Amino acid sequence: MSNFNGVIIATCNKYETTHEINVTNLDIDCYGSEYHENGMGEERNYEISGIFSCGKCNNEFEISFDATEYPANFLSYVIDNSKGVRCSGTPMLEYEEERLIYTFPEPEIYIPNQAVISDIQGINNTIPKLIELIQKDNSYIHKITPREFEEIIAEIFRSQGFEVELTKRTRDGGKDIIAIHRHSMGIDTRYFVECKRYALDNRVGVSIVRELYGVHSSRTGVNKSIIATTSLFTTGARNFAEYELRSKWDMDLKDVNDVLGWINKYKSRI
After folding, report:
1. Residue 170: predicted pLDDT
2. For position 113, what pLDDT does the model report?
3. Do 16 and 85 meet the contact criterion of CB atoms below 8 Å apart?
4. If both were cysteines, with which of 17, 21, 91, 158 could 56 make a disulfide (CB 3.0 to 4.6 Å apart)?
5. DSSP secondary structure string for all residues of 127-172
6. How far apart are CA 61 and CA 11, in angstroms?
7. Number of domains, the chain
8. What's the domain range around 200?
9. Considering only CA atoms, which of 231, 238, 235, 237 is closest in space to residue 257?
């Protein structure tokens, strides 16, 4: 049996007022699960959230975390998506087994492929270490989970100064990452990034390109869309992006070679 606990210190962006929020008072929604046939078992994805009001400015703020439990009973990633406040602390996973209570993150755990990650504190610690592993051996790009691939791409964009939001896997509406580049002149650019963690022999087809372009072209769309994959693209997919878009600037297709280029140039900030 798994439960979330801990305390979040939320600081109002407007008046710097601090609020102590117990994780047990937040809503916990398990919105997706996936079984991995690699000996690590089931991966579960949670939204941990709640709406509160600042006692000083009376503005509402949202506490929101996207958490991944993988393998079972280990909290591998926590992403802070809160709005209106800055949060200190993250939810912790607690489970009861044989009348003993264990709380994670632990000081050191194992991730798939036996790479050691220390001091788990969410994306800013775990993902740079996973990127470092792939830098040392590029073959690990095909041994990570789809969610880990999304986290890696998000961290690479974040390291380049983008504001990054990862969307929930089952509710993303055709994009995994929303990235915003804010220019000093006040000219902002918004990107959709769709991530496909595929085997090399499973190429990204034209239907995926069409689907993302449909979201791109909607009223709430973006300046540019990107598909990043650990595989390659079919000829049909590349032809659609090259010849059938309204503008050649609308979309970029980045295959495994492009992604490995990003990873190999990445420099951790921790």
Report:
1. 45
2. 38
3. no
4. 17
5. HHHHHHHHHH-GGGGGTS-HHHHHHHHHHHHHHTT-EEEEPPTTS-
6. 10
7. 2
8. 107-270
9. 231
> 115 and 99 in one domain?
no
* Tokens representing residue 113 in the block: 């492929």
Same domain, 12 and 142: no
d(CA 242, CA 24): 50
Question: Both 123 and 190 in a single domain?
Answer: yes
Rounded Cα distance, 241 and 250, in Å: 9
Alpha-carbon distance of 5 to 21, in angstroms, equals 10
Q: Please give the torsion angle defined by the CA atoms of residues 114, 115, 118 and 120, in that order, rounded to the nearest 10 degrees.
A: -90
Surface-to-core class of residue 227, CB atoms within 10 Å of its CB (0-12 exposed, 13-18 middle, 19+ buried): buried
C-alpha–C-alpha distance, residues 84 and 50, integer Å? 12
Contact at 8 Å (CB) between 134 and 111?
Answer: no
| Whether residues 149 and 210 fall in one domain | yes
Distance of CA 86 to the CA centre of its chain: 18
- Could you give the CA distance from residue 6 to residue 28 in angstroms, rounded to a whole number? 13
Task: Specify whether 100 is located in the same domain as 111.
Answer: no
Instruction: Determine if the pTM surpasses 0.90.
Output: no
* 205 vs 77: which has the higher pLDDT: 205
For residue 9, name the pLDDT band (cuts at 50, 70, 90): very high
DSSP-based three-state secondary structure for 70: coil
Mean pLDDT in residue range 89-115: 48
Residues 12 and 67 in one domain: yes
End-to-end CA distance of the chain: 34
Tell me the pLDDT band of 145, cut-offs 50, 70 and 90. confident
pLDDT over threshold 70, residue 15: yes
